[in-house]
Amino acid sequence: GRKSEPFQSVVDHMASHLGVSPSRILLLFGETELSPAATPRTLKLGVADIIDCVVLASSSEDAEVSQQLRLRVQGKEKHQMLEISLSQDSPLKTLMSHYAEAMGLSGHKLSFFFDGTKLSGKELPADLGMESGDVIEVWA
């Protein structure tokens, strides 16, 4: 009966065996990526055919988390410091408005600087090579 069993069961088995999430398991037959819904019968596989099992480095959920930068936004006063998490591909205006709201400065004219460069808010952290722990300065 195994011939008509979908590969999903192989994926699930491998995932639990390797302790990874099933979304990280990729089955390859030659150069072809196999769909977990396919069965050996639909692919006309024989006993001698070899299917490679590849574990992807990390699922997109994990990547999302590591993509989050923890940026420090520092105002003139020491207490005007806020840590904001932002993903690499979110425009910095997200962080700017978040900061203004948190500090009760919405509607005020704030200037944000990173490495001495004034930010327009359209930039992405990725464009500026930002890393977690980087400081953005705010001048009111």
Automatic annotation (TrEMBL):
Coiled coil: none annotated. Residues 67-140 form the Ubiquitin-like domain. Its main location: nucleus. The keyword Nucleus applies. Keywords: Nucleus. It is found in: Nucleus. GO terms for cellular component: nucleus. InterPro entries: NFATC2-Int_DNA_Repair (IPR052324), Rad60/SUMO-like_dom (IPR022617), Ubiquitin-like_dom (IPR000626), Ubiquitin-like_domsf (IPR029071). One of its GO terms (biological process) is positive regulation of transcription by RNA polymerase II. CDD domains: Ubl_SLD1_NFATC2ip (cd17078), Ubl_SLD2_NFATC2ip (cd17079). The keyword Repressor does not apply. Gene3D superfamilies: Phosphatidylinositol 3-kinase Catalytic Subunit, Chain A, domain 1. This is NFATC2-interacting protein.
